[in-house]
Design brief:
The chain is built from 10 helices and 12 strands.
């Protein structure tokens, strides 16, 4: 039996993991002389989850997105209420306003007793008594009223003006209602995405946590394996000194002992790197020192209690899954967006009131003081013809709504597949663990028998090393199987939407 193939699980769990993690970890800056942080006592998985949920940057961003959606919802609600605005300004004019370009002479009238009416005062011919016309063909007034040009000139060099307006929407084509529903859906979607991201963080923490537990167990296993080979090495050297073992036996055991010691170093390095990975996931400094609650204790196999792969209430699963809820809210948001687009084709009605004032004011002959007046009115806007622009905008929004619905349906199908696969993998993980438990008992007995036979001289060193290799493989496989059960349970809970 090839020892390198037997130790592949140790190398994949330590060396490969460690090198991959070393490439993924950010560069460590100089920390100066500050002592590394130490978590007191044994830290449980729940504590690491809480640390990750509190420190994860993605969750911090998603919390801010929820606040943003809440502010946008309040902004949309404000559209129901009247808006009050103030506008003011100052204007300098080079010239004054003059109504006339020159002095004005207006004809006058006198009361005629004969006709009992007012008649223009005109120049008459003394001979005939008839009014006389001038060269322009117009009658010539005998008396006039003089209006000087300066009397109708107004000083508007400096003009101050302002207005306070109030606008109350009455009907906006359903746009305000749709925007309020849209922003509420966006807030619910942000909350669901936050919950989904939290589940991802918890799963990452669990994976890193159980990786540490696994490597800690493999570290103990590697140390036990080194001790077994070391004991065998001493015995073979004694037998060689007594002439009952060959030089080849000694060299064979020495080579395997050295290989086991190298693998132990790799496992130790992988354990250190896995602790750094767990600290990084939880938002702690990577040099934080801690002891896991499960790393020195026997890991308890979770209770099985699994439903068949197709025995879950999928509608309940859909309702619990935060990512599906977020997609459902996206469908609702797209539906309301279509209503917003529809509102551009409907009439709008608003009531407006204003108080306008100016200096000079128009109410007292451009006197230089502030004076104003109230005005109230209604504004109606009816779209008539825009060459299909608004209608095509509405149709584009409806197409987007259909896309969102198809995305939701596709996601549900993928979730159903995910649940089936997760349930199947969890069941297989339990079966594998039970098989490794049986193999472990046989490997322990095989090692005990081979060691006893070697002491009695009826077995060779190769037989003992083969038994030790089988023992190492059985223990390593059981550790992997137990950790796989833990992770499969967490993944199944995440797929079912029951991960708290």
């Amino acid at each position: 039996m090839n020892l390198n193939s037997v130790l592949s699980s140790l190398r994949s769990g330590a060396l490969a993991f460690g090198l991959g993690l070393m490439a993924a970890l950010p560069a460590l800056g100089a920390e100066g002389d500050d002592a590394p942080r130490v978590l007191p006592g044994e830290t449980s998985l729940e504590t690491f989850r809480e640390l990750a949920l509190a420190n994860n940057k993605q969750l911090m961003m998603s919390r801010e997105r929820i606040r943003k959606a809440d502010y946008q919802n309040k902004e949309a609600f404000a559209a129901y209420l009247p808006g009050i605005d103030f506008n003011g300004g100052y204007l300098y004019n080079q010239r004054n306003i003059s109504i006339f370009d020159s002095d004005q002479m207006l004809p006058t009238k006198s009361f005629d007793l004969k006709t009992q009416s007012y008649q223009f005062n005109l120049v008459t011919d003394p001979a005939t008594g008839m009014p006389i016309k001038g060269p322009d063909g117009q009658y010539i007034p005998s008396t006039v009223a003089l209006i000087p040009k300066e009397a109708m000139e107004f000083d508007v060099h400096n003009v101050f003006f302002g207005a306070i307006t109030l606008t109350q929407p009455v009907f906006m084509g359903g746009k305000i209602v749709a925007m309020n529903r849209l922003t509420k859906a966006a807030k619910r979607a942000a909350e669901a995405l936050h919950e989904s991201e939290a589940e991802n963080v918890i799963y990452a923490v669990d994976a890193a946590y159980w990786q540490v537990v696994s490597l800690k167990a493999k570290q103990k296993l590697a140390e036990s394996y080194v001790n077994l080979l070391d004991s065998l090495n001493r015995n073979v050297h004694l037998m060689f000194d007594e002439g009952v073992a060959t030089r080849s036996d000694v060299l064979s055991v020495d080579v395997k002992l050295n290989a086991a010691q190298v693998d132990l170093v790799k496992v130790n390095n992988g354990l250190v790197l896995s602790r750094m990975a767990l600290a990084q996931v939880c938002g702690l400094p990577v040099d934080t020192q801690f002891t896991l609650a499960d790393e020195d204790n026997e890991v308890v196999l979770p209770a099985e209690g699994l439903e068949p792969a197709g025995g879950y209430d999928m509608q309940a699963v859909y309702d619990r899954r935060p990512d599906l809820r977020a997609l459902g809210e996206a469908v609702e948001a797209a539906h309301q967006q279509a209503k917003v687009a529809m509102s551009s084709m409907l009439p709008t009605v608003a009531i407006a009131g204003a108080y306008e004032f100016s200096n000079p004011n128009l109410y007292n002959g451009f006197k230089k003081n502030f004076k104003g007046a109230f005005s109230v009115g209604a504004v109606v806007s009816i779209p008539l013809w825009h060459w299909g622009g608004n209608y095509n905008k509405y149709r584009a929004a409806k197409s987007d709504e259909i896309v969102r619905k198809l995305e939701l349906e596709d996601a549900r199908e993928l979730v159903a597949l995910q649940v089936s696969q997760a349930a199947y993998k969890t069941q297989e993980a339990y079966k594998t663990y039970r098989m490794t438990d049986t193999n472990l008992a046989k490997a322990d007995e095989n090692l005990r028998t081979a060691t006893l036979a070697f002491r009695e001289g009826v077995a060779t060193a190769d037989n003992v090393m083969a038994a030790q290799t089988a023992w190492l493989k059985a223990h390593s496989e059981q550790i992997d199987a137990l950790i796989d059960v833990q992770l499969c349970q967490v993944y199944l809970s995440k797929a079912l939407g029951t991960l708290q």
